[in-house]
Design a protein that fits this description.
By secondary structure, this protein is of the alpha+beta class. Helices cover 32% and strands 27% of the residues. It has two domains: 170 residues, GTP Cyclohydrolase I, domain 2; 39 residues, no CATH class. It is elongated, with a radius of gyration of 19 Å. The structure holds zinc ion.
């Protein structure tokens, strides 16, 4: 497993990201999400993670046919005849998340230690290049009055990954969702991924991992709690 560095340089033109400070984005007092100096409306955590008009499969197929023509290929050739349908199906599969119900229950035993699900595999699509990035997510929280079904943490990763994404926003959305559903004492989300837009094009740095993190509450303010989070994820490598 990659060691989590204090600073991670993203590909090409992108800004360095503070991997442990949770500086990727912050909420203003008006509930807006500030990302790298931009202000964007905070998405509703109970609705699809970004503005979507629904997946138009026929239109996607026509667009792939047009792309093949633009690439100088014959979409009517025997080899490519089924490609528009296959590509549209592949995008549908990667962009249409499965809804799920968050299951929370009372923390009747007063469990107050870190709950962590580590090495959750995920894949998503980079919104800059429409190329996949994939890796693992470590998701943890410090319980307050309620606990959440453990599988729901993996479901949340899956849900928000099924979108056109940047890893920084994906990390934040998962943390926001847990905050909203559970109102815990703190949340930590660390994601590490290999971006094919870095490995098959551009700098072609095979094996380079991008690490992003968001910490809230006591996981942000108490270094010793955050250290326990990292201890548990390191011990798995
Ligand atoms: Zn990209």
């Amino acid at each position: 497993m990659t060691t989590i560095a204090s600073s991670v340089q993203r590909a090409d033109d992108e800004e360095p990201v503070d991997a442990v400070g949770g500086r990727i984005s912050d909420l203003t007092e008006h509930g807006e999400l500030v990302e790298h100096g931009r202000v964007a409306a905070l998405h509703s955590v109970t609705n699809p993670p970004s503005a979507r008009t629904g997946f138009d499969r026929d239109r996607a197929q026509r667009a792939v046919t047009e792309l093949l023509l633009a690439l100088g290929r014959d979409p009517l050739s025997a080899d490519l005849a089924e490609t528009p349908r296959r590509v549209a199906d592949a995008f549908a599969e990667q962009l249409e998340p499965l809804d799920f119900a968050p299951t929370t229950f009372a923390n009747s035993e007063g469990y107050d230690e870190l709950v962590l699900v580590h090495d959750i595999p995920f894949h998503s699509l980079c919104e800059h290049h429409l190329l996949p990035f994939q890796g693992v997510a470590h998701v943890g929280y410090l319980p307050g009055d309620r606990l959440i079904g453990l599988s729901k943490l993996a479901r949340a990763v899956e849900y928000f990954s099924h979108d056109l994404q940047v890893q920084e926003r994906l990390t934040r959305q998962i943390a926001d969702w847990i905050e909203h559903e559970l109102i815990p004492r703190g949340v930590g989300v660390v994601m590490q991924a290999e971006h094919t837009c870095m490995t098959v094009r551009g700098v072609q740095s095979r094996g380079a991992m991008t690490v992003t993190s968001t910490f809230t509450g006591e996981l942000k303010t108490r270094a010793e709690v955050r250290e326990r989070f990292f201890d548990k994820t390191r011990s798995t490598s």
